[in-house]
Design goal:
By secondary structure, this protein is of the alpha+beta class. The strands form two sheets. Strands 1, 2, 3, 4, 5, 6, 7 and 10 form an eight-stranded antiparallel beta sheet that branches. Strands 8-9 form a two-stranded antiparallel ribbon. The longest helix is centred in the C-terminal third of the chain and has 26 residues.
């Protein structure tokens, strides 16, 4: 995406930050209500404040009918000096005042046949002198432990429909972004089957960019819950559970070593408990483990942890 930078005039004055905040709070509520009904379980709501400016509310799920651990976080934070994680690609923003708000969702299911899922939608703005810079970002990605072709096709075809409302060429760009971003170079493998990922999204102006953010957030439940409902009652044993815990280790490695959102949150002195909400409840590492040839575990590596054209598939 082309990042627009402009002086405080014209359409920059039309930024409706309050509308963004209201939408994000509404999105958090709607996702939590849906998950609570589906999981047959209530959530813990934890409102917090940030000493440096702003705050938010974390909502935690645990030990429900299909969610082993999950969270749906809303945050709205600001400060006078932008964290390093946000200036690596934008050195001109060093020392700028900034503001960020967003909703982040991570679900770690108890059944290994139900994939872990992540969704995030956010808005960021920064000001330095007479220059205002803003953008939207977000997306969603799916991390299965056991691969199912129909789940992958549903996930990516549904994501493409969301993108096609904005531009018929957008899905391929955002899928490529997602494949490249959710990749562990130290393992030379993908975290999952991807989805869509966007950042610096503002090239069409505020209203249209905001509309795409809303389409992304509103579509999340429709993408994920059909997969949950297909797989949540699938029988599994200790072997599948051990593999799930092993693969969760990759999730932890990515979030702590590679994820810019995690780094931004920690560098901005955000609330650590909420930032690390994305960590799974249980995980294991095993030295130099490799899957057996012909196994379902090996199939995940060979067929699913590599970028594929699931829409045409």
């Amino acid at each position: 995406m082309i990042l627009k930078q402009t002086k405080l005039s014209g359409w920059v004055k039309k930024l409706d930050k309050l509308a963004v905040k209201k939408y994000l709070e509404k999105l958090q509520n709607e996702i939590c209500v849906t998950l609570s009904i589906a999981d047959k379980n209530s959530f813990l709501a934890d409102r917090w404040e940030r000493a440096e400016g702003g705050g938010g509310e974390s909502r935690l799920f645990s030990n429900g009918s299909f969610i082993e651990k999950g969270g749906v976080n809303f945050s709205h934070v600001f400060g006078n000096s932008i964290p390093t994680a946000a200036t690596i690609k934008r050195p001109e923003l060093v020392g700028a005042a900034w503001e960020a708000m967003g909703v982040s969702v991570v679900i770690h299911p108890s059944n290994p046949h139900v994939p872990t899922v992540h969704m995030n939608v956010r808005f960021f703005s920064a000001r330095k002198g007479d220059i205002d810079i803003w953008w939207f970002g977000g997306g969603y990605d799916l991390t299965p432990f056991y691969g199912y072709e129909d789940d992958c096709i549903h996930w990516h075809c549904s994501a493409k429909k969301v993108c096609d409302k904005f531009s018929e060429s957008l899905y391929q760009k955002l899928k490529k972004n997602c494949d490249e971003y959710f990749f562990l170079p130290h393992r030379n493998e993908a975290r999952g089957i991807g989805g869509i990922f966007f950042d610096d999204f503002n090239g069409e102006g505020f209203d249209k960019s905001f509309e795409f953010l809303k389409d992304t957030g509103d579509s999340f439940i429709d993408l994920y819950m059909p997969i949950v409902n297909r797989r949540k009652n699938t029988k599994f044993g200790n072997k599948e559970r051990e593999f799930q815990l092993y693969r969760r280790g990759r999730y932890v490695e990515f979030n702590l070593l590679r994820d810019r959102g995690t780094l931004f949150g920690l560098q901005s002195m955000g609330r650590t408990e909420s930032i690390l909400m994305s960590m799974p409840p249980l995980v294991r590492w095993e030295y130099n483990w490799t899957p057996k040839a012909g196994s379902r575990e090996k199939e995940l590596y060979d067929l699913y942890l590599k970028p594929r054209d699931w829409v045409s598939f």
